[in-house]
């Protein structure tokens, strides 16, 4: 009997040695010996009835001891396997905190959008509302109502993309002035950003570019109001020290018309490469709304006057960020666009 029990013990130890590689295999092995119906030790218990009565007590005691021993061995084995598996799991999930972090690419707004937003901020602060016109206009809104009839020489100032004899891609956001004045009575204070199109293409001109039109119509609007607003604009965009200078110019829809220069923010007015030694940089066209334009829109030009300006957004951005070719703004080269994050 003793021999049989010790050989079972050995079988258990050998089995563990050979097969118990995981909690699952250890559990299978346990079943093989300890399952009350099918297990080797379970079978020994069942044989009790075949044992001579005088040996029964001893047999039972020995089998029970073996059972207790095996139960203990398998419990310890299970603990061991559990610890081993947990360790392996932790090992697999280990994070190397010294590894360089994954780089997440964050986008930024396109420089034109940034510039547009900055301009809107500046003028919204002065009480301007936004009006977005349409990119397709008819001849009347883009030219005729802006005091530029069919045979007017000023039409040559802007090479137009015609879609049909009547419709065209707007050459200027000034077209929006007419829509606004037709639909709203003074006081008017609007800002109209948007794409415009001209058959023009070189380092500083693109066939499609963006303008920001400003229009103010009220009683007693003068060039002083215009200069005051534009001074605020250049100070906010180009720095506190910036100021403007107005030079006489010509646009059919403003009278008088001015070309506006900003004092060179690169050299402070001393003269440098950027301002070509003059201390001033031309930035936009503006003027007092021509009485004829007010009248075309049914606004009493004796009672009201207006000011208008048209800012080129690309030009403003190119000056501010030192971009020397307008194409860089349209080529979508991430390396270029990433460098301009000003919001
Ligand atoms: N529309 C003019 C242009 O595109 C700019 C401008 C706007 C001038 C408003 C005067 C007043 O050149």
Topology readout:
Blueprint: H1 2-19, H2 23-34, H3 40-46, H4 53-92, H5 111-124, E1 129-130, E2 136-138, H6 139-142, E3 167-169, H7 175-183, E4 188-197, E5 208-218, H8 223-238, E6 244-251, E7 254-263, E8 280-289, H9 291-296, E9 305-312, H10 313-321, H11 334-337
Parallel strand pairs: 1-4
Antiparallel strand pairs: 2-3, 4-5, 5-9, 6-7, 7-8, 8-9
Helix pairs in contact: 1-2, 1-4, 2-4, 5-8, 5-10
Bound molecules: phenylalanine.
Phenylalanine binds near residues 174, 286, 287 and 310.
Can you give a write-up of this model?
The longest helix has 40 residues, at 53-92. This protein has eleven helices and nine strands. Helices cover 41% and strands 19% of the residues. The relative contact order is 0.11. The radius of gyration is 44 Å and the shape is rod-shaped. It has helices spanning 2-19, 23-34, 40-46, 53-92, 111-124, 139-142, 175-183, 223-238, 291-296, 313-321, 334-337; strands spanning 129-130, 136-138, 167-169, 188-197, 208-218, 244-251, 254-263, 280-289, 305-312. The structure holds phenylalanine (PHE). Phenylalanine binds next to strand 8 and strand 9.
